[in-house]
Amino acid sequence: MNVELIKRFLKEVSLIMVEEREHLIDEDSIVGDGDLGLTMSDGFVAAYDAIKDSDEKDCGKVLYFAGKAMSTKVPSTMGTLMASGLMQAGKALKGKSELDRKDVTAIFENYLEGVTHRGKAKVGEKTFIDGFYPAVEMLKSTEGEELSVSAEKASDAAMQGYKNTEGMIAVHGRAATRGEDSRKLLDPGALVAAYIAKGFYLSVK
């Protein structure tokens, strides 16, 4: 596994975000300002476009460049969070031209770390983290399995994490102003996490 895996991954995520743009807009319109679909589609397309034709072999640098391009294209709160994840993963993998199974898991562990550090959210606070954290934990616990099998389980775990945000009280963003009423809603940020995990699965299946 090498930089081509990262390119496939970002390509699949960008395609999903474009395909689901209107759905994300609709979901975000319920709890936010409705720009999530545009931010995620524009941002991940910019991330992929920045590295798709690159000759760079350093996986860390490719991830970092992708994140940097995303941060420039969509400097919104969510755009910055997603870009921070990519750049943190890039820092962690700098110098690696070949990836082993633990390196692949490290991409997602560090993506989570980057988002958490920037956004200060925790599991259970009805955010992106609630979709992404289960996927990372699943990747870690299934490292002995085929990557495609592990990735599919991680994708399923992320989607379940998204569904589990119904019933949580929102702590961050506009949804937090709803207080107890926010329990009735699903979190669109966690849906973004599920789409990222799905994109990874599609890139390795």
Report a brief summary of the structure.
The protein is an all-alpha fold and 205 residues long.
What does this protein look like?
- The chain has one domain (about 5-205): Serine Threonine Protein Phosphatase 5, Tetratricopeptide repeat (Alpha Horseshoe), CATH 1.25.40.
- The chain has nine helices and no strands.
- The chain is mainly alpha-helical and about 200 residues long.
- Helix 5 (about 75-95) runs antiparallel to helix 6 (about 100-120) and helix 6 runs antiparallel to helix 7.
Secondary structure: elements and pairs:
Layout: H1 3-19, H2 21-31, H3 36-51, H4 59-73, H5 77-93, H6 101-119, H7 129-141, H8 147-163, H9 188-204
Helix pairs in contact: 1-3, 1-9, 2-3, 2-9, 3-4, 4-5, 5-6, 6-7, 7-8, 7-9, 8-9
